[in-house]
């Protein structure tokens, strides 16, 4: 089939100033490696080693590469052209890795959606990325993604092609993809954008994060050294594979880069993961704090042999020192705290750090060239040990989001620092201690929820006069979401409002955990209160009341 001409689209770029490019190359961070380049190399060098295990599938490095090339050729034969963006929404199955590697091989650009996302989020990614295709599995966790695919095509007709792992119905089966391998392109420019990751979304909708081959490969190559990932490692993907943490810190890409084995757990809980740890001899896994506590408890009672585990990484949300102690005691292996973000910067405690640092800090940056500023509200650096806003730039931190001038104006300083939105303290040795967020988002067990986004959906309800969404401390989740709602003439029931938010086509984790009705939002003497101050007041009042009762 002839490829139709690609309609004009916003180009994908991620550009650092020339002096930084020169510096990062000279320091050996950016080596000109690419995804297809390193995957081909490993397929040659480690051909018969097991690369990916999941369900009934065990692929060697040679088989993973062959699968990737078959899928790549099939994508191009179906009419996609290099440079096209493809929304990928797959769970922890080997096909996820093969599809993504196939897209890289064809110079197509994956846009990663999480399995929890629903039509509103997926349509937003497809529009923002100007995607031409969508890849899903027929079902996952009881949900039929083909239904979502139909809705997506109805809302965003530019998504002309849908590929399905499993029973494809009217769509194209990934298993049936094939094409001319000789028509596959050469390796891409290492400075080009390899994929679009999605942001946690601190204000409004998630933004798209263009990451280059050079910058991303550096981040997981360097992570491998810090996390002790080598060819004999076995890395378990327990969190959703599309998230940056299990993907690259060091994640399954780090493991594949090292020639190690990647094991995909269908779910994050001990019931799914423990048998795999015992069977495959898993050495490293990344978890969010509530899961780590769950694992630590379950480890005491399990009959499965977990003695192969060397490093348990915990990140995505704050692990408080007492929880850290419980994780170490329960799992009996080395704990590594990971404080990272899809935009770039990742901090790790080091495997040989003293206990005190591992228990009480979120680590220090990967790179000697990660520049970290901790500043007050006016941008003036604060002393070590004081809390301030974390700003950063470096060899794997983006300089801008895709297709979002307004967000870029807010999120980046004139000299290219990314405003993380996190409040931190820097302590001795450059270690960071996360103190909270400056922007209003809820970190619900590592899943980020924008207050503004949910308020918008609540306000669309005819019986909601106004709404403010805040985070409330939660013993298990770290934070849960609470919506303060001023009802209209008739007061809706909380369950109705929750169903309303779900019905707006959002991921279930964004549905408010709690709804509190109030008559009015108080204002200060000044009269005019910013949304942020308002949220802070509501939250403080609510917490004081809880304590008093
Ligand atoms: C990871 O990435 P994102 O993009 O989902 O979320 C980033 C945000 C950070 O800005 C921070 O607010 C929070 O998540 N966060 C933590 C944390 N790790 C992430 N807050 C406190 N303590 C931690 N250890 O979540 C992510 C990406 C790569 C590796 C690890 C996590």
How would you characterize this protein structure?
The protein is an alpha/beta fold. Among the domains are: 56-187, Rossmann fold (3-Layer(aba) Sandwich), CATH 3.40.50; 441-548, ANL, C-terminal domain (GMP Synthetase, Chain A, domain 3, 2-Layer Sandwich), CATH 3.30.300. Helix content is 34%, strand content 25%. It contains 17 helices and 27 strands. Strand 14, helix 11 and strand 15 form a beta-alpha-beta unit. The protein is globular, with a radius of gyration of 23 Å. The termini are far apart. The mean pLDDT is 96. 5'-O-[(R)-(benzoyloxy)(hydroxy)phosphoryl]adenosine is lined by residues 200, 244-245, 249, 315-318, 337-342, 346, 362, 420, 422, 434, 437, 443, 446, 448. Residues 200, 244-245, 249, 315-318, 337-342, 346, 362, 420, 422, 434, 437, 443, 446, 448 line the site of 5'-O-[(R)-(benzoyloxy)(hydroxy)phosphoryl]adenosine (OOB).
Outline:
By secondary structure, the chain is α/β, with parallel strands linked by helices. Among the domains are: 56-187, 3-Layer(aba) Sandwich (Rossmann fold); 441-548, GMP Synthetase, Chain A, domain 3, CATH 3.30.300.
Number of strands: 27
Number of helices: 17
Ligand inventory: 5'-O-[(R)-(benzoyloxy)(hydroxy)phosphoryl]adenosine
Q: Mean pLDDT, rounded to whole units?
A: 96
Write the topology of this structure:
Elements: H1 18-26, H2 35-45, E1 50-54, E2 57-60, H3 61-77, E3 85-89, H4 94-105, E4 109-112, H5 119-129, E5 133-137, E6 139-140, E7 143-144, H6 145-155, E8 161-165, E9 172-173, E10 193-198, E11 208-212, H7 213-227, E12 234-237, H8 244-248, H9 251-258, E13 261-264, H10 270-280, E14 284-287, H11 289-301, E15 311-315, H12 321-331, E16 334-341, E17 344-348, H13 355-360, E18 364-365, E19 371-375, E20 387-393, H14 405-411, E21 418-427, E22 431-437, E23 441-444, E24 447-450, H15 451-459, E25 464-474, E26 478-487, H16 494-503, E27 514-517, H17 531-548
Parallel strand pairs: 1-13, 3-4, 3-5, 5-8, 8-9, 12-13, 12-14, 14-15, 15-16, 26-27
Antiparallel strand pairs: 1-2, 6-7, 10-11, 16-17, 17-18, 19-20, 20-21, 21-22, 23-24, 25-26
Helix pairs in contact: 2-3, 3-4, 5-6, 7-9, 11-12
């Amino acid at each position: 089939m002839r490829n139709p001409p690609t309609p004009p689209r916003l180009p994908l770029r991620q550009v650092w100033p020339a002096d930084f490019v020169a510096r990062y190359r000279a320091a050996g961070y950016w080596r000109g490696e690419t995804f297809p380049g390193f995957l081909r190399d490993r397929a040659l060098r480690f051909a018969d080693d097991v690369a990916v295990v999941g369900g009934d599938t065990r692929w060697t490095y040679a088989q993973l590469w062959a699968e990737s090339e078959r899928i790549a050729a099939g994508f191009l034969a179906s009419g996609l052209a290099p440079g096209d963006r493809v929304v990928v929404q797959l769970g922890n199955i080997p096909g996820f890795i093969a599809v993504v590697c196939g897209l890289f091989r064809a110079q197509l650009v994956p846009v990663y959606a999480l399995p929890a996302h629903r039509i509103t989020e997926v349509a937003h990614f497809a529009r923002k990325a100007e995607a031409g295709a969508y890849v899903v599995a027929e079902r996952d966790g009881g949900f039929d993604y083909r239904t979502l695919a139909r809705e997506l095509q109805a809302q965003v007709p530019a998504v002309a092609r849908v590929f399905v792992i499993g029973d494809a119905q009217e769509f194209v089966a990934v298993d049936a993809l094939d094409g001319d391998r000789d028509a596959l392109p050469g390796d891409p420019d290492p400075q080009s954008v390899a994929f679009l990751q999605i942001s946690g979304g601190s204000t409004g909708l998630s933004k798209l994060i263009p990451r280059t081959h050079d910058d991303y490969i550096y981040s997981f190559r360097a992570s491998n050294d810090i996390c002790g990932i080598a060819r004999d490692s076995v890395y378990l993907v327990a969190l959703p594979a599309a998230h940056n943490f299990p993907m690259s810190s060091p994640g399954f890409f780090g493991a594949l880069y090292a020639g190690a084995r990647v094991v995909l757990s269908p779910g994050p809980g001990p019931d799914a993961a423990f048998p795999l740890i015992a069977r495959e001899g898993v050495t490293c896994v990344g978890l969010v704090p509530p899961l780590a506590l769950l694992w630590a408890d379950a480890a005491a009672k399990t009959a499965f042999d977990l003695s192969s585990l060397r490093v348990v990484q915990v990140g995505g949300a704050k692990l408080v020192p007492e929880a850290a102690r419980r994780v170490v005691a329960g799992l009996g292996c080395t704990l590594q705290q990971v404080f990272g973000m899809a935009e770039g910067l990742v901090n790790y405690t080091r495997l040989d750090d003293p206990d005190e640092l591992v228990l009480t800090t979120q680590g220090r940056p990967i790179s000697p060239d990660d520049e970290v500023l901790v500043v007050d509200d006016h941008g003036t650096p604060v002393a070590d040990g004081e809390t301030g806003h974390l700003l950063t730039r470096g060899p794997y931190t983006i300089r801008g989001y895709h297709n979002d001038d307004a967000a870029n104006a807010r999120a980046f300083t004139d000299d290219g620092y990314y405003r993380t939105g996190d409040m931190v303290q820097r302590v001795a040795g450059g270690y960071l201690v996360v103190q909270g967020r400056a922007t209003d988002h809820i970190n619900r067990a590592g899943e980020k929820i924008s207050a503004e986004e949910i308020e918008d959906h609540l306000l669309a309800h005819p019986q909601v006069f106004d709404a403010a969404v805040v985070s409330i401390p939660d013993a298990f989740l770290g934070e849960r979401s609470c919506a303060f709602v001023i009802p209209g003439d008739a007061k809706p029931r909380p369950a109705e409002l929750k169903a309303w938010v779900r019905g707006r086509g959002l991921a279930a984790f964004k549905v408010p955990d709690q709804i509190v009705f109030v008559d009015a939002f108080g204002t200060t003497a000044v009269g005019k209160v910013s949304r942020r101050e308002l949220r802070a007041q509501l939250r403080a009042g609510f917490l004081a009341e809880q304590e008093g009762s």
